[in-house]
Each structure stands twice: as C-alpha cells, then as structure tokens.
Amino acid sequence: AQSVTQPDIHITVSEGASLELRCNYSYGATPYLFWYVQSPGQGLQLLLKYFSGDTLVQGIKGFEAEFKRSQSSFNLRKPSVHWSDAAEYFCAVGEVTTDSWGKLQFGAGTQVVVTP
Amino acid sequence: GAVVSQHPSWVICKSGTSVKIECRSLDFQATTMFWYRQFPKQSLMLMATSNEGSKATYEQGVEKDKFLINHASLTLSTLTVTSAHPEDSSFYICSARDWTSGSETGELFFGEGSRLTVL
After folding, report:
1. A53 interfaces chain B, CB cutoff of 8 Å
2. pLDDT score for A102
3. What angle is formed at CA A101 by the lines to CA B104 and CA A41, rounded to 5 degrees?
4. Distance of alpha carbon B104 from alpha carbon B111, whole angstroms
5. Least confident of A76-85, B30-39, B77-86, B95-104
6. What are B21-63's pLDDT values in tens digits?
C-alpha cells in the first residue's frame, strides 16, 4: 500500500531564513508527487508537482522540490521565507494510472510558523 | 485557469438532518471528481471517487448510505451527509480532473472546501 510521511509536524523558522520540508513516500513505482499549501480555513493551493523528467521542480511563490528516487523523497525548499509563508503544507502522492489519477493520498502535514 | 467551486462554504445544521454540498467545475467538464474530508488539524482523507453517470466508488471505511454522492452532470457532483451527527462535523473538499488543459496528464483542481458543523 502506498503511504506518505511528513516527519515534521511543526516547524518554526525565522523570516528570511531557508526552509526545508521533508516528504517520503512508499509506492510500487514512481508516483505523481505534489506539494500543497493550506491557510487556516481555506482550501488547497498547488505549489508544485512532479510527474516525470527533471527531478528539480520549480513552483510558485519561490518554492522548489527535488525528487530523489533512491531516497523515495520529495522535499520542499524555499531559500528565504516570508511571513506570508506561514501555513500548513501537505505532500501528496497520486496513483499513476489513467483511471485513478486524481486520487491523492496526503501526508499528515507540516505546520510552518514564521517568526520575525 | 480552471476553477472548482463548492457551495456552501459554511453550513450549520441540527443533528439528524441532511446536508447537501455541491462541487462544480466552472469552465471544464469533469467525468471524475473526488471527495475528501479533513478533521481539525489533520490531513485530508479521500472519501470517494465520484463518476459521472455511474455509482461512486467509496474508500474503505466510508459509509455509502451516510455519504451519498451523485454526479449527475459533467460539471456537478453533490455530497449529501444524511442524518448528520456531531461527529460528521468536518471540512469537506472536492477536486476535479481537467483533461482539456492540453497536458498529457490533465490537471487537478481543488475546491475551496465546505465546513460542516452539526449541532
């Protein structure tokens, strides 16, 4: 069975500092990989996704993620965090089949707090 | 870009009543939509896959008679929480797959979510 693990439940980072959020997955093959951000009481916003090709993926808001097959990881990074980046971040895995593509399994989420 | 809209955004109901939540794809047709629920400070859990013109496919542990899903048109899926109880209070989010974006894999869009509070 596939699974997604976000080891860090909560991260506090200073504004302007770098941020890295970890995500590990367990899947029979290379799945579709996603990072979403959710502000309190809001829906999900897609930051970036990986389907194939270049393993370093650029997203919105200055975020990037690197797919490492050998480590089954898809960690999210941002070089310099802004106060507006405080939110909940979810890593998700999607099945790579035509019919079920769209069914996502989400990690538990990482709450990011940004301090002045 | 494509938008998925949910209605209502907030709903409060009395225990024992039924509540309907709509998920619409506003500028594309979606043969498949997905329903998730999210408890406070928790992750999203897939409830079911909504298929236009056919029965929904429910995930293990989700009560089919409790959470009725109807995908009557290519732009609308509805989730009805029947005989709602306080434990059904949650944030319900839908998503829809757009195959018309030109991408080989299509694009996935999420709605804004609907918060249900059962008193």
Report:
1. no
2. 78
3. 110
4. 22
5. B95-104
6. 999 999 888 888 999 999 888 889 999 999 888 899 999 999 9
Give the chain B residue whose CA is nearest to the CA of A108.
B43
Q: Would an 8 Å CB–CB cutoff place B106 in contact with chain A?
A: yes
8 Å CB contact of B49 and A100: yes
Please state whether B92 falls in left (phi above 0), alpha (psi between -120 and 50) or beta.
beta
Contact between A108 and B43 using a beta-carbon 8 Å cutoff: yes
User: Average model confidence (pLDDT) for chain A?
Assistant: 91
Residues on chain B touching A94 (C-beta within 8 angstroms): 108
Check if B11 contacts A (Cβ < 8 Å). no
B60 touches chain A (CB under 8 A): no
Rounded to a whole number of angstroms, the CA Rg of chain B reads: 14
Q: Is B2 exposed, middle or buried (0-12, 13-18, 19+ CB in 10 A)?
A: middle
Dihedral over Cα of B109, A4, B39, A61: its sign: negative
- pLDDT interval class at A99 (50, 70, 90): low
